[in-house]
Fold this protein.
Amino acid sequence: MIKRLITVVIVFVLVAGGAFAAGAPEAVPEDEDLRIALLVKSLGNAFFEAARDGAMEAAEELGDVEIIYQGPDEPTAEGQIEIIDSLIAQGVHAIAISSNDPDALVPATQRAQAAGIEVVTFDSDIHPDGRSVFLAPSDDELIGRSQVQAMAEMIDYQGQIAILSASATATNQNIWIEYMQQELEEPEYSDMELVDIVYGDDLSDQSYREAMGLFSSYPDLAGIISPTTVGVAATARAIEDEGLVGQVQLTGLGLPSEMSQYVQDGVSQQVALWNPIELGYGITYIAYHLVRGNAEAAPGAVIPLGELGEVELDEELVTFVGEPFVFDASNIADFEDIY
Amino acid sequence: MSGEQARLAKQPRASLGQRALGLLVRWEMVLFLLLIGVFVLNSNLSPVFLTQRNLLNATFSFMERAIMALPMMLIIISGEIDISVAGIIALSATAMGLASEAGASIPVMILVALATGLAAGLLNAFIVLRFRVPSIAVTIGSMSLFRGVSWAILGNQAISGYPRELAQLGQGTVGNTMIPMPLVMFACLALVFGIVLHRTGIGRTIFAIGNNATATQFSGIPVDRYKAVLFALNGLVAGFAAVLLTSRILSTRPNIAMAWELEVVTLVVLGGVAITGGKGSIIGVVLSIFVTGYLRFGLSLINVPSQVIGIITGLLLVGAIILPGVFEHYSNKLILGKQLKPLEPQRE
């Protein structure tokens, strides 16, 4: 048995080692099509399928690009690493990742970089050691300020407003709220007053109760901003249940699939969220220009993103597509099946 | 003495031709041909498959599961099963992460992971043997238990910030060669498990327990003690797999090694180990590890979506359960004429 085992091992090594071949990457000739892999958190997720559609659109415009859409079947780091290794092996030109773990992927992406592959991230970043450019969903300051601007237009720049957030410790939300407060200090908002910030902990029933609490504490409340998908949907339900449609305005960050009916019924005039199609579209352009050498991954570099205009990289090579995408009664139905 | 040798020993009248045929139509030979088939297919589908670097690097992603298949092989041969292995990996990795956050050194972190795995294995053994519950039921429960504890501790958070030196274990290569460290560890462990299974009384006893636990018990062998050791060993090796995996990705999340239990069982069963116990060989399991590993790698090289790869793995598992039985039936018929169920491995 052992003899046979050894024989098997020897045969195997001979078979495996018999065909050495060099797989070193070289500079990409101008006439060669670029192969850009879009590696997402997991397959079967409508958000990322929309991003893929955006990438396909960009590839079509660019002409000489082939998009490889891949992701693990479970949203795990190990699944993504396995795919990165196979992408390295096949020598793709660029990998654009929305990661499941900011640290775990870094060794794998560094191997990819060492093999001459351009690694960029979108939507969900990894540690800067393992990528060049990160295309963020949107900019924190823009998110915060644009929410206040939207609310101000709904209530004619006057009245009491409140914020219904996720948990008191949520980093994202707290940064956005800070920018909301800064925006409210501008002179045009002098007739608006932020009366309360409450926390629904991203739980639907708790957010609902907090919204109800706001209605009873502030009978003159003119509007609520809820920068969380759970909170904005729960608040919409609370407004509808209390018959306050039109009296209390609502905006926030909402998923079209959850908010479509409320927006079409006028409970909320508009909600915003990043658009996965733009993310996929933008990151494809970024990867393309970096590989082709049309752009450099350096602070201050400007990269053209086709129809989306240009973006500029900041100190940490982060950039974003633009303002959060606004969904109102005219367009939300188009997106409700997507994410 | 293996089943193969036993068969040959008891068939003195078998002609040379029949013996050669017997060698040819073993399941392991089928796997070996399958492996060659995978190589031929993959190198035709992708020009980059058959490079030394890629073939070696590809093993990084399936060595933890390969190592897990070794103790699982013993457990299944003994007529039991452990569905909780991936849960044990998650729990051990979490414990290791907590140790790392508490400032433990690398050896201490490794010990913590191994101890956690061992404890989890012992818990399985205790429930299965003390309360006489089928191991499949117990370990389906403990799978959720172990991973649940990991979720409770970590929630949506990840533990990272492991020391860089830890990476050498799971990501490193031996010296200046391209040979991955985990591959070497697997080779050593496979050798040890192979020798124990096929060359020692312990291995023969495990086969005997799987074939007929009651008879083995009556012949004076402490069956429960053997099974307890196997469950504990499985936990311990799962702890070791957790160390390797953590070292490879330097991060711990509660969803680590998700759904690996089925992949590990697939490796073992595809390797010709009877799911009902009592039969199997280390060569079959080793071959099935490389067949599945390189099949997955080859398919991902041509960017087959991962769900489709999942479907193919699932078909392999179903096929692996049906085929060896069918195969044995016909190969016996071929070699031995009408004598359809001739021999089992010798028991002592």
